[in-house]
Recover the amino acids of this structure.
């Protein structure tokens, strides 16, 4: 039982930024120190608003705008005795005098502090597109942003007798995808433009095509590997419509353009005050959120964190970390034992119509970039017992270190994705490996899971790959495989006839034991590259072939993964 | 890369029991050793059937009976080259000769083995009820059991013009509750009889009333703290109906009686062979599933495991552990490195109409029985962002050691329960504590969770309780609290007026700072026991009172938990 470090003299805590990280810090500080004088400065008109809910108000799924405004300065004064000042912008920090210069409608003033917490968030990156000031161009970051977009959409859809309006969404990241979903829900024709050659760039390349497929199914036009180059007025001069030109030559006449190509830390205040900055200009902090100035802490989108697995520093602009960092900064400011910041996994999730995509830990791209040795496994298990109605396939990819440690996991599917990624995020944080996943004891009854949960299955498969029970080949090596090995397709004849790899030999796995000689001859000394639809039957076949002395390997994730990688 | 331990001479593996543990062992053994001779003995008519799916076939939710039969001996021969013998019962083991005596319709024979795996499962406990042989009495364990019940129900419901038939379900454990749900779905009037004074005895007493409420809402009649004493023919002699007499004097005329009061390890074969037995007659095995005989392994419902947290040995009859133990036994038999059995958490889940109840780790009752010091916290967070439509409350209870280690967790709710329990099961396995939960990075977007997930929230609250930031009182201590302290209700006046504790003082938390004097006077030196609806507002109030020098404590889980404990 620690004693209560209250401040009879009224410790002065000033917080810059009144949303996720800032207001979490303010609330926690008040709970820890009922006597402190806590001032929250927010340049905008709203505090404590649900940024993450904005796309769903845009769509109308959250019909009531006020649901997004979790608090007002008045309610925060009443419940938490906070002095919250909207429309007040922190202009400068005088570290020697411990004062913040603040500008408000009423003028500029200075505010002394004993502890200063910076939670200014991030700023939207403005991509190099000509004509970004055209009135049809919007961004999706704040309440006024959504108000503006809703007004435009209402006006467009009120104009009866005309076709559905057209929107161009630039950037297929998390928020871009949420914007697409929202605009389709509002009845717009949507074009999605993304510089990378896949949607949701943080997603492994094997999974992204599933999202692309879903978007196409919902009528979204995809422009991948393309950038928007200009937004220009129409020759006809018709207002409220713009001509959007893409790098691939496409020209779209758009009623609405939404640009969300990422954010950058809002660190100018910190930089000008001479605080140490790190990766991509983010504010450098220690595990207690303290900056290079002992009286200043910083949290949220504006700060640099250590990424799990690779150890690379980077800003990771997510609400969960921002909220917890705010709480931690308050603990530190109030002299409490803190829960030090753990390396950040970047666990993130997005709904794309009927699909959910989620990631945790290091993606394959990050592992490659960091030069971390890893083995990738692909699975497509059902989200609950296959015999129970409504089982949906989860497409699961995970990377393991040679010693079995789980490094990262990603999943796409219609159900049960969030649960598996949360379990895997917990497992990575705990330093678990393939053996631990194999032995996890997850809740099983038919409506919820399987006796061998997809997470256990991931452990089993990784064990088999890592200990050599199941050597594997990867879909991205197909060209080399076709050139140098015998491809053995152990699916049924019907499946084979429907579609198969050029030159593949078809022996259904149930008949393989009777035809080992055929394989031996066809292989003629070459390795045998086995596959089936998902990897399960071909695993059995691989075992039979290995026992017969073949150099056999199983295609990770089977035909399902192959199709995604090589459509 | 280990080399492949195949057996050119054809290692002889005999497996007793052809369902969860046994068939998992057989399948894994075949994958590891393509040349072994593997015989599976199953006394029943079916192998590889989905026991856990039986209640859902009873209800009709799984309409197709064949969906439950995952394999036949023929399909297992074809895919896995297994010699599966249904209708063959292992009668005795000659350990010296390494032979099993087997009885089949064709006669009795002996079967030699190099390795023997016992997976005989469990047997239904027959409670001391007179007349259990009456034809209306059924149990729910096998495919024929369900066939029989379905036939009876079809006959009952075909008899047109009569009222809905009546069923008595004896035992409100996991399977009993699934049976109740199924019978209600089939249109029966259901009486549920349970010896304990709550449904689902493994559930903490604070959560069980939520299930009881749901059962009552669906028209189920509850007889808690009662036992069935006899099932007797009706005086009228009308066949197909029985008079069921309960210990509390109730007499029910029942068309169907379903008895599921628990299971006991089916260890007679092992016992007669002189293998070492442990808790409740379960077969004793090491972390590799090996029994006291080096050539015999055992898995599943028949074996004793070490329970996590308390370390107490017990059989834990669940499908996940059985499946994984089967896999492990095969690894051991085939000379593979095994994934040793971790202490068993007993993670389990059940759907009760619209509710889900799930548990992992040690319950409070088990902690008390084992004398393990622990602190209990109660929360009622929303399963995803509250501002997103469809947020459902999760009722979450967890126990922590004084050093913060998570010992057990349970939850009831309409959505998101399985996910939280799986994350918490992973956390217990990893040895995580309150600090780790506070820092877990779980997937957040509004449709899936909250920036501060319920699991993080559990960590926060536990930290506050354990470090003295938030002293708490428990609903079960209400009598003492009423007698010795001032109860301060910080809910709004409207909430207070609707219902409140006798003698409580009402000061809404937003007004508390202005009325500290009132509290001081009313307390008159006594401690102040604060509460609100769920614990959040009263936590703020507790902090304010502590700073004012009061000896204040917050009611864990608030009015919601109090109501469940003291209806
Ligand atoms: C549309 C949208 C959807 C999102 N969805 C998700 C999601 O589903 N899941 C997820 O994890 N994350 C999501 N995020 C990200 C998440 O909202 C941010 O990571 C989080 O809000 C960051 O918290 P913060 O406190 O650092 O910054 P913010 O919450 O952005 O708050 C910073 C505040 O500081 C103010 N400010 C800046 N400088 C000054 C100054 N000098 N003086 C005064 N005030 C200042 C700004 O006006 C701003 O209001 C989403 C973000 C957006 C925009
Ligand atoms: C209705 C029902 C619902 C369930 N729901 C769930 C659930 O939702 N989640 C969960 O985790 N668990 C559930 N279970 C429990 C789960 O099914 C068991 O834990 C699991 O099947 C145990 O596996 P086992 O291999 O040990 O035994 P079993 O699967 O029961 O197999 C044992 C087999 O051995 C055979 N046998 C026994 N003795 C001999 C002998 N001498 N010779 C030949 N054969 C023999 C038996 O006939 C039996 O078929 C449920 C069980 C039932 C009955
Ligand atoms: C609304 C806001 C001010 C709330 O901050 P907060 O008070 O720290 O958070 P919550 O309301 O979730 O309450 C959490 C506190 O209640 C406590 N608590 C929760 N349930 C409890 C219970 N049953 N009993 C006792 N205490 C409980 C927690 O321990 C925690 O307190 P602590 O931090 O002192 O340990 C802040 O989160 C905010 O401004 N959010 C909007 C912006 C945002 O987050 N955007 C991004 C996501 S959309
Ligand atoms: C049906 C039954 C025979 C299946 O046993 P099984 O073959 O071990 O289990 P699965 O079919 O789930 O397959 C798991 C295997 O496929 C492998 N696998 C799964 N997905 C894979 C993929 N994409 N690529 C390669 N291998 C894969 C796993 O690694 C595992 O193999 P391993 O144990 O050698 O590592 C057995 O579980 C059974 O009889 N079940 C019914 C009874 C029962 O379980 N009742 C209780 C619950 S209702």
């Amino acid at each position: 039982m620690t004693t209560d470090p209250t401040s009879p003299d009224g410790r002065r805590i000033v917080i810059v930024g009144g949303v996720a990280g800032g207001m979490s810090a303010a609330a926690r500080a008040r709970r820890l120190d009922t006597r402190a004088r806590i001032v929250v400065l927010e340049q905008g008109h709203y505090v404590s608003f649900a940024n993450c809910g904005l796309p769903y108000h845009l769509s109308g799924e959250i019909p009531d705008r006020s649901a997004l405004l979790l608090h007002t300065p008045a309610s925060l004064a009443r419940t938490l005795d906070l002095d919250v000042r909207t429309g007040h912008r922190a202009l400068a920090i005088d570290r020697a005098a411990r004062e913040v210069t603040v500008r408000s409608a009423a003028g500029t003033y200075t505010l002394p502090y004993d502890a200063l917490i910076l939670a200014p968030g991030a700023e939207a990156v403005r991509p190099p597109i000509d004509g970004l000031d055209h009135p049809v161009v919007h961004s999706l970051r704040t309440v006024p942003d959504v108000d503006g977009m809703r007004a435009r959409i209402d006006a467009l859809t009120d104009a009866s007798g005309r076709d559905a309006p057209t929107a161009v969404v630039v950037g297929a990241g998390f928020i871009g995808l949420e914007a697409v979903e929202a605009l389709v829900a509002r009845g717009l024709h949507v074009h999605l433009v993304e510089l990378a050659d896949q949607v949701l760039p943080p997603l492994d390349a094997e999974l992204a095509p599933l999202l692309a497929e879903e978007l196409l199914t919902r009528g979204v036009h995809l422009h991948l590997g393309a950038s928007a180059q200009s937004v220009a007025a129409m020759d006809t001069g018709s207002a409220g419509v713009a001509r959007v030109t893409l790098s691939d030559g496409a020209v779209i006449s758009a009623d609405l353009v939404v640009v969300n190509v990422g954010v950058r830390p809002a660190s100018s205040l910190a930089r000008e005050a001479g605080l140490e900055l790190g990766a991509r200009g983010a504010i450098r902090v220690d595990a207690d959120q303290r900056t290079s100035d002992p009286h200043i802490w910083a949290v949220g989108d504006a700060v640099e964190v250590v990424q799990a697995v690779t150890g690379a520093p980077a800003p990771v602009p997510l609400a969960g970390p921002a909220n917890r960092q705010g709480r931690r900064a308050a603990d530190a400011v109030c002299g409490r034992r803190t829960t030090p910041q753990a390396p950040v996994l970047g666990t993130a999730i997005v709904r794309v119509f009927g699909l959910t995509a989620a990631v945790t830990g290091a993606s394959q791209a990050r592992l490659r970039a960091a030069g971390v040795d890893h083995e990738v496994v692909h699975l497509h298990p059902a989200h609950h017992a296959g015999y129970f109605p409504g089982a949906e396939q989860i497409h699961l990819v995970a990377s393991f270190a040679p010693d079995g440690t789980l490094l990262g996991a990603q999943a796409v599917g219609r159900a049960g994705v969030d649960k598996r990624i949360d379990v895997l995020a917990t497992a990575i944080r705990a330093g678990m490996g393939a053996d631990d996943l194999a032995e996890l004891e997850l809740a099983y009854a038919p409506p919820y899971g399987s006796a061998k949960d997809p997470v256990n299955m991931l452990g089993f498969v990784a064990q088999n790959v890592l200990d050599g029970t199941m050597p594997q080949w990867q879909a991205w090596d197909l060209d080399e495989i076709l050139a140098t090995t015998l491809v053995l397709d152990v699916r049924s004849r019907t499946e084979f006839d429907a579609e198969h790899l050029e030159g593949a030999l078809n022996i259904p796995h149930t008949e393989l034991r009777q035809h080992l000689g055929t394989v031996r001859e066809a292989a003629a000394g070459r390795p045998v590259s086995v596959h089936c639809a998902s990897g399960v039957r071909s695993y059995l076949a691989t075992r039979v072939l290995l026992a017969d002395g073949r150099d056999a390997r199983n295609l990770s994730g089977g035909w399902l993964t192959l199709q995604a990688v090589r459509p």
